[in-house]
Write a structure and sequence with these properties.
- The chain is mainly beta and 201 residues long.
- The chain has helices spanning 181-184, 194-200; strands at 2-5, 7-8, 19-26, 29-37, 61-68, 73-79, 85-91, 96-99, 108-113, 117-125, 135-142, 149-152, 176-177.
- Strands 2, 5, 6, 7, 8, 11, 12 and 13 form an 8-stranded antiparallel β-sheet that branches. Strands 1-3-4-10-9 form a 5-stranded antiparallel β-sheet, with no helix packed on it.
- It is globular and about 45 Å long.
């Protein structure tokens, strides 16, 4: 399953080769594969590659959000071409209750970086996904200052953009259906997550 991020957050076409986000089943999780232009703008975050980095959204990143529409619980994953990552588990819009920079949410993440493009592979354990995950969106950010660009797989429809509106990747109402069984097979059931169960105790 492959998705191309061909629009800005507010529905305009991107001006470069679109970022590609691929999803396929992996060992005990979902393999997320990113292929993207490498802008190297802003420069690398001051964190160790292969480790979580708080505030990664201020740098060059590709993000994916996996949502349970019924509960408004979702997983946010941010991948950086310099090797850092960030994972957030949210319960309610923008309400993070577990963050990889603070908690133990390890991630297998590999980056191959070339001069003008990069590829990343991350294995997302099923335990990070909220129960009944059924919606999805993906985003890409790069550039600095006035040239900062915010791109979305499923953008805000242009006729719904308000004057002066800022980019907001937590507009859950614009996420679209994701049927994980298309990847894993019709007989598959999403494994129960002890992490998410701990939220309701």
């Amino acid at each position: 399953m492959e998705f191309l991020i061909e629009h800005t957050w507010d529905g305009l076409p991107v001006s470069h080769e679109p970022v590609s986000v691929g999803l396929r089943p992996g060992a005990a999780g979902l393999l997320m594969e990113v292929r993207a232009p490498f802008f190297n703008d802003p420069p690398a975050p001051p964190g160790e590659p292969g480790k979580p980095f708080g505030g990664l959204w201020d740098y060059e990143v590709v993000e994916a959000f996996f949502l349970s529409d019924r509960s408004e619980q979702y997983l946010e994953i941010e991948l950086c071409p310099h090797g850092q990552y960030l994972l957030l588990l949210l319960s309610g819009r923008r309400k993070a209750w577990k963050v990889s920079a603070q908690e133990e949410l390890p991630l297998e993440f590999e980056v191959t970086r070339m001069k003008t493009k990069w590829e990343g592979k991350a294995l997302l354990p099923w335990s990070y996904f909220p129960p009944c995950t059924d919606k999805f969106n993906a985003f890409a950010i790069h550039g600095s200052g006035e040239e900062r660009k915010y791109e979305a797989l499923y953008p805000v429809p242009p006729h719904q953009v308000q004057e002066g509106q800022e980019p907001d990747f937590h507009c859950l109402e614009f996420f679209k259906d994701l049927n994980l069984k298309e990847l894993t097979g019709e007989d598959w059931k999403q494994p129960e997550s002890e992490i998410w169960k701990s939220l309701t105790k």
